[in-house]
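check these tokens.
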Amino acid sequence: MDTNNVKELLSRSALYGFFSCCFLSSWKGELENIEKHSAEVPDAWSNRVKELCILTKDISDEKCTSLFGGIGGCHDCESSYRSLPAGGMLADISGFYNAFGYPEEDIDNKPPDHICKELGYLSFMFAKEAHALYKEDTEAAETCSQARTKFIKEHLLEWSTSFVENVSENAPDSFFSKAAALMNEAVEAECSKKSQRTS
């Protein structure tokens, strides 16, 4: 078993677990999860994540609701940013979730294409790959890696930059805009990392 690789995958799971908590319209209960995930992210992201955590002291449910959710000014679902038919897109996303047993119901009352669910799926897939490697099931680990990369390229990467721009426009220089920018940087880095491995 490659212990270092397992630890790296788990730390990347924590990074996306952190991001998945950042954009909910209800903030109650998320601070504890944010702090838990932030302590386990990869070293390369640790300082910037800690800087973000300092900004959480000024966040309230009212601020979240005014930005995200049905009455907020910031769209937080993939279908709001892409011109593809929503039904097919949601079915495709749900297909990814169902194929690997992602418990998407953990994020209450959010559609499959909500930013928090998509980021939560990445966190879940990194953890699932780590578990497969721990069990020395390299085939299952590679399947998880390929599905995760496909999901990033076909879904999250297609709208994350537009999401960042929307958040920055509605909440400039806020925790949310900085978290969105860092999230997008991490997502783009995943694609770059995969390209480097396959070239």
Residues 138-170 form the longest helix (33 residues). The radius of gyration is 16 Å.
